[in-house]
Amino acid sequence: MKLSFLFLSVFSSILLAQSTLNVQVLDYIDHGDSEKNLETPLSVVITSTATGQPVIDQQVHFTVSGGDADLVPADGFYTIEEESADGLVVQTDENGKASVIVELGKMGEVHVNATVSDSNGVPSVGSFDFVSLDVKAIVFQVLGGLAVFLLGMQMMSSNLQQVAGNKMKSILRTLTANRFMAIIAGAFVTALVQSSSATTVITVGFVNSALMSLQQAVGVVLGANIGTTITGQLIAFKITKYAFPMIALGFALSAFSKNRKRQMWGKVILGLGLLFLGMTTMSGIMKPLRGSAPVREFFTAFGSNPILAIIAGTLVTVFVQSSSATVGLTMTLAGSGLIGLQGAIFLVLGDNIGTTITAQLAAIGSNRPAKQAAMAHTLINVIGAIYFALLAIDKDGFFMNLVRRTSSDAMRQVANAHTMFNVVNVILFIPFVPALAKLCKIIVPSGDDVPEPDLILDSNLLSTPVLALDNLDREIAKMAGVSGKGVCKAAEHFLSGKHSAKRILAMEDTVDDMQRDLTIYASHLFKENLSSEQSLRLPVILHTINDIERVSDHAVNMLEARNRIEGNVLESEGPLTVAAGQAFETLKEMAEQVKLALDTHDLKAAQKVLVLEGRMNQIEEEAKNNYSASLATYGIANLTGLAILDFIDYCERACDHMKNIAQSIIGGGVWHGVESGE
């Protein structure tokens, strides 16, 4: 349905000289029931300035001076045959009235002029201004844009996690090593892409991919708030314009490259392109609203009430998905005198709250740290808006006078107030970055999430073994991630008591469920017509599934060993304590490399697993020797030392199973090792 809102121009005739004709624009109300046309015609009445009487048979030239619309004759009105190519010439009736019907085109603002000229050729002009809106198109495109936005976010995040690895993690940690560097990085990137939303979305993606810590993300978000204040002063460089080239490049790399890592990077670029395409779609469909009179009237009505003004700024920014658009409109309102400086500042404060919705949308479906990063963005802007609103509540107070002294231009004053808000807010928050990160963890508690057995095992693929085997590979990697996370949490639990034993046992149960489902699915493939290569792969897949489950079993052993000790093992001194810490670090790194190897079939990661397994054997051997030497020296058994020795043994056994998995990957999916471990 196309809805049209008409705003009658309180119009005064344009006089080049004293015109003898007057154009009166008739009142018009559109109820928005028309699919294609305005509900009623546009009408004017021509009167004589001398007598005030209607002028009959006067030619009125209707033209569309802006927007997309066509004019057609209204019933009962005579149209001149030699009508103008750029409009319609209509003669007034016995009441001095002339009317036309408007056929609406694409959405946007439409301007129609009605011009008459007296006998001396002096023109008088009446104008109609309205906005054509297709509600159905707005709803569909916003929903579609949001879906594309979330799809791009998910694709970028998941593939970053696969291709980045520890090297990218260390680079990012270096770039944002402290809160000051993180702030600079956030400000620079935001100034470059002219979108604080894009910066925060990418930051949430990095946190979701474990490429950035929550504290680093808070610094980047602070910097993004500074960067967004200078975008209007920079040369226009809209990175969203490159959404389609990014999609094309990403697709080319992912579809045509034979290198798996390049394929993953292609999907990262493709995801980023889709993300920007979604943002552009949501923002673009709202353009008729952002520059329309209803929005201006909306701001003007709420500008005088601080609370309503902040709410208005928040809602409009959420709606149009562009903080820059809202700030720009607010500056325009202030510059035209439609809204005062105080009302403009309240609207800008609301805009700063509304812009955080993009990060919240990006965090949908992400992990807890990503949700915490989005929450940090919201807290920073909401807290800042509260105390700045208190400063601005006094129209003649220090803050308002300070803003006025920065410039005599109303638009510049609003821009300066926006900059002052974000810069001062960042300065005040810098010392509290660690505290803010902790607060976000309290509001969005990390907990120990228990992954559900959300395996995607499509039985329809069984008739196509090559696709079914690929399906198994993806889900086995998912199982390995849960198993590796569980055994690492169990190791931390043994060493320091960290994490809930109940949660770790629930994770082990999840792995058992995954093993059952994957084994049943794989067994169905034996009934299919397999190639010789597929027949060799399937037993190895079953071995891998079992090895992953056995890794998880040793998490239970570690929990039992914890019951024999107290306190934090790593706080004690001695060679066994050192060995326990080394065993945990080695186990953790092996779990990461196994997951990477299964995700990407990375032979280097698999070979690193074998090297790490050799290191684990050496750690266990030295620990046993140290314990034996202690017994020979003191002649007594230390129960804590024995528990640590058992813990190291469990780590070594878990690593043996990881070695089996790595050997199968190096062997191209054919078993070359000897099954080891308990």
Write out key terms for the chains shown.
Methane Monooxygenase Hydroxylase, Chain G, domain 1; single chain; Immunoglobulin-like; 678 residues; 5-stranded antiparallel β-sheet; 63% helix; alpha+beta; 4-stranded antiparallel β-sheet; elongated; disordered N terminus
Count of alpha and pi helical runs: 22
Shape: elongated
Spans of at least 5 consecutive residues with low confidence: 1-17, 29-34, 164-173, 231-237, 448-453, 670-678
The major pleated sheet works out as: 5 strands, antiparallel
Query: What helical percentage do the residues reach?
Result: 55-70%
Number of domains: 3
What is the CA-atom radius of gyration, in angstroms? 34 Å
Strand order of the largest sheet: 1-9-8-4-6
Q: Beta-sheet strand percentage?
A: 5-15%
Q: What is the count of β-strands?
A: 9
Straight-line N-to-C gap = 68 Å
Structural class: alpha+beta
Q: Oligomerization state of this entry?
A: single chain
In round numbers, the mean pLDDT is 75
Tell me briefly what this model is.
By secondary structure, the chain is an alpha+beta fold. It has helices spanning 135-175, 179-193, 196-208, 214-227, 243-256, 260-284, 287-290, 293-303, 306-320, 323-335, 341-354, 357-362, 368-392, 398-406, 410-429, 433-443, 465-496, 501-525, 532-562, 575-600, 603-634, 639-666; strands at 2-8, 21-25, 42-48, 59-66, 69-73, 87-91, 97-104, 108-117, 123-134. It folds into three domains: 2-133, Immunoglobulins (Immunoglobulin-like), CATH 2.60.40.10; 176-443, no CATH class; 459-666, Phosphate transport system protein phou homolog 2, domain 2 (Methane Monooxygenase Hydroxylase, Chain G, domain 1), CATH 1.20.58.
